[in-house]
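Hi there. Long-time user, first ticket. I'm pasting a complex I've been working with (about 584 residues overall). I'd like to know whether the download I got is complete or cut off, because the file seemed smaller than I expected. Thanks.
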Amino acid sequence: MNNGVLDSNNLNGGQKLAVKYFSVAVILFVAQILFGLVTALQYIIPELFFEVLDFSVARTVHINALVIWLLFGFMGAVYWLLEDEAGVETVGLKLGNLAFWVFTLAVTIVVLVYLFVQVGPGDDTTRWLINEGREYIEAPRWADIGIVICILVFFYNAAATFMKGSWSGISGVLILDLVALAGLYLAGMFYTTNISVDQFWWWWVIHLWVEATWEVLVGCIMAWGLIKLLGVRRQIVTTWLYIEVALMFGSGILGLGHHYFWIGTPEYWFTIGGFFSALEPIPLVAMVVHALYDSGVHKFKAANHPAMAWLIAHTFGNFFGAGVFGFMHTLPQINLYTHGTQWSASHGHLSFFGAYATIVIAVFYIAVQQWRGGVWMSGDLPGNGWKWKWSLALLNIGVLGMTMAMLVAGYEQSFIERAIEGSTWSGYFAAQMHPWFIQGMNWRMVFGIVTAAGTVLLVWDLLTIGKGEKRTRQEVS
Amino acid sequence: MIDPVEMQNFFMAFFSGAMVIMLGALYALLLAWGRIKSSPAFVVAAYITYVLLTVFVLVLADTMNFEGFWNLITAVMLVGYLLAPHGIWILSRDTHTHEQEPSSIQS
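Hi, the file is complete. Here it is re-exported in full:
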């Protein structure tokens, strides 16, 4: 161990690959924030970058960067815990490294094409080479195929390593989840001329990835994180993982129905979507109680305070973002007015941050600690750990502020554009020009800047925390 | 067919939906905390929270124009929110039964 310096000799093979994924994830996170600021500014100054970097392009990059940085973060997290869980070296590491470079190169090309080519004639060439046109998964078809191949390599690395080594409850759930992760992406890869049918399958990727496979994936990471950070017994976290997975799949799969209300699918989806959406917050409530229970039992004595703080932020963020902000506009009686407004964006921002960004950031801190030789990251850090505390505060306040600003704007849109004006063009413009909407967009910009400041501080902290630290990590049991 | 929310009920429909989830979590937390600390006051507070939760579920059902099958969902929601925290508590307690370090958790 080489304490206090970033040294690859402190890492095993899987972890060396993981830090590559984490590095790209951080770069994409910064890109997501930058393009988010541009889009936020375009709401205030609509002519900004007109025909140079149109809102549609900037928004595409903003959201795609989010999806991909989280995916890189999750993949890195799995590579990080792989050898630790399996007890053997990662199988097929060279292939895994190759897949990483291919994936990174593909993402780079896709982003450059988004930025510099932007649009095509709208035929097969466009779909294969420029932009597939499906919101959130705009990557052209060649990149889609590449993503699936890279995920399959990732799956092979993980599954083969566990098969060679030992299985655990966490690894079993993880591998089954990765099958779903790779398989579901295929649902967004075929084209139909019927928009209802197209949307039907598109939601399989958007909803089932996010509200089923990603939730389970972060459940696995959370379980492993609680063992590492608090010293919680494996039997406890595994039991909870099974319960949470059962609840998540039990409610999340048919919770898909809340996306089928208005796309031309049969009326029974109102009932199915409404009922299962009402169940979806239950695993999130269970998770809050469980995480606090474990933390309390272990008297909040953790081996890595920044990571532990981010895990707690994850628990609450997941509950408020996905649970509270999801349920309050998910039933069809009200969703008729709210879907596709800033209300959805408000829910999206808090839930993606709370459920996913937070836990990936927690893993970043776990990784940095080991990368610096397993150094001390509990209390009594130099400067009282002001950088991680301030970045945690700024990022959470920033995202929460943006969420509330968009909530106000979304409420106004739902009321004026949808309920009063009946979704007409005049209603659309009336809502866009309403003072609540304009003020909401201004406040969103302000809190976006706060979020950006928190991101800068986070990156700075990740690069410097533990530097020169000679104490070794606090033992937990 | 489902009747959309009336315009005058807009705010209460959103607000009651949010309160159902937040009070559901608060009820679970107060119940767990009350039992960890063996404090009847917290347990009583938990049940008061549940009563408030019931009020907001009923407001939600009213403002969302629940009828027929949707009333069944309301009943299931109320029973579920009442019992689920007990289940969560039992799981939390039992999974920690063999914890090595001494704990103040009461059975």
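A couple of notes from our side: Residues 195-230 of chain A form the longest helix (36 residues). The mean pLDDT of chain A is 92.
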